[in-house]
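Appendix B, Record 12. Input sequence as logged:
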Amino acid sequence: MMPLMHPFCGGRKLRCRSLALALCSGDRHRMKALLYLALLLSSVAPCVASRIVTDEVGRRVELPDHPHRIICLVPSVTDTVFALGAGADVVAVSDFTKYPVEALKKPSVGSTTRPSIETILSLHPDLVLGIQTGGPGESTAAIERLGIPIYLVGPHGLDGILRSVTSLGDALNRKAEAASLVTKLEGRISAVRTRTQTLPRPAVFMPVWYDPIITIGKHAFITEIIEVAGGRSITDDLTPDWPHLSLEALIARAPEALLLVRGGRTTLEVLKDRPGWNSIPAIRERRVFYVDNRIDFPSPVAIDALEDMSRQFHP
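Logged structural output:
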């Protein structure tokens, strides 16, 4: 079995070893030919320069100066990389990638939690981009053992999205593009805040699931989006990110409207036919706001969802 080569310079090391053996053999013609070949290779395939950066998890990672074979392990990272103008350098994405549309043409390496290491290796990436998870990180460790650099981000909330844009811009050596994108996103968020800050806030309830009832809590990303858009989640006082709620507690909180995901499995038709739910005025009177699944992505497309929601809360 051939030894694994360093992703940046492994090929050069093997060529230099062959050249050294030829020099020791004393064959002048062969030596001249190999010297010429080495000179040619050095001019067309130089050892890629690298640099050390710290990712959002605090790991020090050696990255190529200009990565050109990128694998994105998370849909939100894919969206950000394309928004930074590096889509042409992406060789693979993960399952459930939706944005942008161009990314759907890329092959998938599998799920975000258990990507195929064999597929990743076969694509010869010079950089893998992922997200911080609460698990033990077996995939990250496996990719590291292969000598492939993996850089992780951890976007939490709107500020986290902006921070990860900057971080990924650093990892891709696209700092200027990242700064420009952050400025544009900040401007769009600020415009929504300014427009809605003095307007009445509809009290909305977002049922993530209905049996058992699961919703969004105080620290959930979607709760922040609702607040900036000019609404108020009736469960913004609950500490867990995804709290469970009894039907009685939901009725007591008296939401003015529901917030549902377009095309989701939790629909108004499903809820109104469940025992007890029709006692909620918002359901009886069919007061519903809709947001699409861009709200699930901690990346630039979440700002699209923010603007869309704000227009519905305050036409």
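Residues 64 and 310 are 41 Å apart (CA to CA).
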